[in-house]
Design brief:
This protein has about 300 residues and is an alpha+beta fold. The chain is about 65% helix and about 10% strand.
């Protein structure tokens, strides 16, 4: 009987796990579809009629469509395919399948859906065209897919050329794209295209990282235990490292020090720092931005 109970419990756990994975994937599919339609709206509803382009592979496709007359829907799919193949080799089959379906969906959206031309104001076109493209790309990335192969290319180049970061590669690529846009489309279109790219980039960052950006705080203090208690009372998790002083005017160079590390939202940082300095005005505080977090005490608790 205990064996049967264990087996029944194990089967139930498997069913629950499969159900959660299924709901997660359904949610991802919905987000990818929303991303496709929003990106398509940004392209057709704003940018194409004004001859503005975005950065990355999407920008290359739009520039070629303007200069050669080839359909944008075909160019987006064809130019992204090599990057998807590289993504398959480096990031796995699931990523490649999701990315291929998402980009193919965007191509079909551009080819068969007809969005209204929203505005002829150039500034609004650049800002909101980038806004909708950025939201669409961000939703796709959050769901494990891509609508633009630029990040894949930048990641692979940065691994081969270790002196360059991913952001450096993307910057160099976009400088080339917008320089070409200035030559073929004119200076004004190129400048508005740069504005479009910045708008899209900010929205991608917002969608991926959210409004509650996390900040990591490292505190070195002789009153580490008091600081630890204060932070935990605020509902935040704390990690304590054991360290030693490397410099000291009093001669106690090897005196032990607790090193406190915690993660909080940027809105909580001023309060935490003020309380730390109330406890120990001589505390050494270092903070750094954190793109994402998983697990731990990241949700604020109500302290009574």
């Amino acid at each position: 009987m205990p064996l049967l109970t264990y087996q029944h419990s194990n089967v139930s756990t498997i069913h629950v796990s499969l159900g959660m994975k299924l709901r997660t994937e359904i949610g991802n599919i919905i987000l990818i579809l929303a991303g496709i339609f929003l990106a398509g709206f940004g392209l057709e509803g704003f940018l194409l009629s004004s001859r503005f382009i975005d950065g990355g592979v999407t920008g290359i496709s739009m520039l070629l469509a303007e200069t050669t007359g080839l359909p944008l829907s075909i160019l987006i799919l064809v130019i992204n395919l090599p990057f998807l193949v590289l993504g398959y080799r480096r990031l796995g089959a699931l990523f490649a399948v999701k990315g291929t379906l998402a980009i193919a969906g965007l191509s079909l959206c551009i080819a068969f859906m007809h969005y209204p031309d929203v505005t002829h104001d150039k500034l609004l076109t650049a800002v909101f065209g980038g806004f909708f493209i950025g939201v669409g790309i961000g939703l796709a990335i959050r769901s494990g897919a891509v609508l633009d192969g630029t990040d894949i290319a930048a990641l692979l180049v940065s691994k081969k050329m270790q002196l360059l970061k991913v952001s450096d590669v993307i910057l160099v690529l976009n400088v080339v794209i917008f320089s070409a846009a200035a030559f073929f489309l004119g200076i004004e279109s190129a400048l508005y295209s740069v504005l479009t790219y910045f708008s899209a980039s900010r929205m991608i960052d917002f969608i991926i990282n959210g409004i509650e950006r996390y900040i990591g705080i490292t505190v070195v203090s002789a009153k580490g235990d008091m600081i630890r208690k204060m932070i935990t009372e605020m509902g935040r998790g704390v990690t304590v490292y054991e360290g030693k002083r490397g410099y000291g005017k009093d001669g106690h160079i090897n005196a032990p020090r607790d090193i406190i590390f915690t993660v909080a939202t940027r809105l909580e940082i001023p309060t935490i720092k003020a309380k730390i300095l109330e406890i120990d005005p001589a505390a050494f505080i270092v903070q750094q931005s954190i793109d994402d977090t998983t697990g731990g005490l990241l949700k604020r608790k109500n302290v009574h």
